[in-house]
Write a structure and sequence with these properties.
With 332 residues, the protein is mainly β. 3% of the residues lie in helices and 44% in strands.
Length: 332
Amino acid sequence: MKSLDFGRHALGGFAVAAMLAGCGGAQPPISAPGSMPQSRAIARQAERGGSWMLREAKSHDLLYASDNLSNEVFVFTYPRAKLVGTLTSFDSPVGVCVDKASNVWIVNGSPPEVIEYPHGGTTPIATLIVPYGAPVGCAIDPTTGNLAVIGTSNDISVFPNAQNPPTNYTAAGFLGLEYGGYDDRGNLFSVGYYGQEPSGRDALAELPSGGSSVVPVAFNQDIKANVVQWDGQYLSVGGQNYKKQPVPVYRVIVSGNQASIVNKIYLKSHPQSTVWQQFWIQGPNIIQCYGRVNDQSLGVWHYFRGGYPDNKIKGFGGRSIWGVTVSVAPSH
């Protein structure tokens, strides 16, 4: 396993195998990466006075990671994990997502809004106001280009073709929603606690394609989850560890109001780690933050195998990485 220490080096690399069909092209082989002391990277960023991006970034696939504490979004090349930029001027950035044009959308907590950046760019090209508080995640409908923003306040706003005005929905009966995603047919799913404590349990919240209301979908097992993403064949649900155990990720089939678990893997990390943030599936890999206070890392696991991370980006220190996504270079 390679370890890329962001605290000592701002550059690094991790190998990635061929992408899943429908999830992007094959990745090139990885050669030995260079390295740059973080002190130099920080000094260079200070000289820029805010957002910055290396010119080379636009020609690479990019990994975006939002830091809810420093109010920054770090940009790395993917899969080599070279730091090539930082986006600033946020206030509590949370979930991130990417559209078909490789533009990246970043959910901002205060004020509640979602901001669009071009691939490898530092200047926003759109800002959409979210009409409720506590937005946490976003997702792009692959069939229409609609942008959904999901809030822990049980609200969902769908912006048609990622433009104003949105249509707003409330997930009745849920005690808050988390990160969500669309499947390949345009059905939107999120996850949250459904019912009254202590008799309730986590369930999917589905906004069917063309539907007018959010409906609950029960799991066939009692599970803990906070992320939903389409993996090209199944809904991938999970992302939360329980009592500091390995993180379970479930592959799920939805039929009517029932979500059946097909199989699962476990993402292992440090035994004292807490994990609950957004994960992102890119080809055969799954990427998520994990760690303890003042010791966070981004882990890269094999999606079908699980176990301990094959590679990781270390040294985020007391930062709090909430959202991750990968934007494929438009030329690819």
